Predict the structure.
Amino acid sequence: GQASVTPDTCTELTLMPQDYLLKTNGVVGSLLRVPATGEVDACTEGEPISAPMQMYRYLPRLYYIRSWAVTAGDGIPTLCRKTLRRGAPPGWEDECIAEGVEDLQIVWGIDDDGDFLNTPNRYTSQPSDADLLRAVTAQVSLRVRASTPDRSYSDTKTYTYPGREGDRAWTPRQADDEANGVPPRQYYRKRFATTVQLKNPLP
């Protein structure tokens, strides 16, 4: 069945047993796990947190690109993610989202100039722990190829986008070194990008 956060003095959330719960006032937080019995006193469990506080279901996900889709060695790049599993023992489950995704880049917008405007003044694809505390945007770029090759086509473009600038820019290889023997240049490609605003109170 489902579980509710108790008591009534806390905001009510509908959760499942074994869910993870984050309570935070935007500065500090505490991570709880709903027991199998189905109830958790989120007001008193975990570290004391001064009001006002909010509670969220905690859903960590790790996104990655792997070199195969269904069978190892099939040569189809695929966007996948790991999701925290319910139940005991806790662990990670793999879920693949989209075939044909060759590259995922995330560039973080950092606001560290002290103007308190929550607008980035610099960008980095390799943030430090301190950078992540001051990240206010995330630029997400995907490079996606067609599911089938076109043997009359040759992709000679150089792909440059956030996270792939300079010596990290990407050009399709000419060698027939993919598992299915199709030259990488014979696929049409497109880049998709979006910028996400982060709810990240600056210290």
User: Anything to note?
Assistant: DSSP finds one helix and 13 strands in the chain. The mean pLDDT is 84. The helical segments are 129-133.
